[in-house]
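On to my pick:
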Amino acid sequence: MGTTDGDGKESLNLLTSTQIVIHDALTKLGYNQDMYHLLEEPLRTINVRIPVRMDDGSTKVFTGFRAQHNDAVGPTMGGVRFHPQINEEEVKALSMWMSLKCGIADLPYGGGKGGIICNPRTMSSGELERLSRGYVRAISQIVGPTKDIPAPDMYTNAQIMAWMLDEYSRLRQNVSPDFITGKPLVLGGSEGRETAGAKGVTICIEEAAKKRGMPIKGARVIIQGFGNAGGNIAKFLHDSGAKIIGISDVYGAIYNPDGLNINYLLERRDSFGTITTLFEGAITNEELLVKDCDILVPAAVSNQITVENAGNIRASIVVEAANGPTSLEATRILTERDILLVPDVLAGAGGVTVSYFEWVQNIQGYYWNEEEIAEKLQIKLVKSFNDIYELAQTRNVNMRLAAYMVGVRKIAEASLFRGWV
């Protein structure tokens, strides 16, 4: 992500690239190497092995992780993802991103992240339940409402959070709704949590468009990815009058310069966001990214915009809805081409912000309606966007570095006051 190999191609490493930008951000803020050494990796990372009785009677042992980046500000908070390619290095990097998101949204948390190596597409509901409960048993000593608060992430949902909550409540022998967020409403979940990530991205798109004097109504938008995030972003923007001209899934992409029927596509996609297999003439994800548009939203996987295609991006605004879709070198190229790049740690702060709202509601036992949640989220993210945009302008840095500077400042100050550095 931050280096090149012998052929000139970038070496894409999530943890290393995150460390590079954190180092640059701390340097810009005037902190020394001691602070960087404290924040360059999580304070705690645990690897666990989880035996699960499968439906065929066999026992399969799964590997899980939990990383807690820094708890100087408050308890750590972050999602748990189920994915066949998850690894310890990725979990570490994502916990650091969560710290940045919490700092950007001015939340009283540090960053945490968890994951289990598994393929949920091939597992039954009973197997997923036993895996979820086993994970909670394995990490129960280091998590809790005032220690580390899990949340949904890739391929986990409200049902999985409910199983985890129930297991934790059994272990602790008390009802602890504030242990976990992203729960069903009947178990203390928050209105607006299901779509919070997409709503946060949409708010950032609207703010970026304002900076460029671009009305959302009629804006031509391409969204790479059509799962929970991409699908909801497409819906929100479509309802605001934007013209969605391209969407994609893991198998390919659909493009129509005259606009797509988003409501029809949302009705036809499957539970994993797959839709392109139903259409002839689909193009590749790579081809979709370089189509002419006003706003490009990478909402699928990492490392999609690199040094190899950054010069061919034909959008005025790029808003990252996925984790790490744009490399560091590509960030530089886009910025030099005067393309406004809204980084993932800013655009993706909606989910953790509404998780914070859920945690607060659980603690006080009083719940807000969906309109109140939406209003509070709007206020938080509009301020965060403008703070970062203004810092980028006044310090003459790109939006990614500005976001990291805002995000890391709170946790660095808290660590300093605690006497850790």
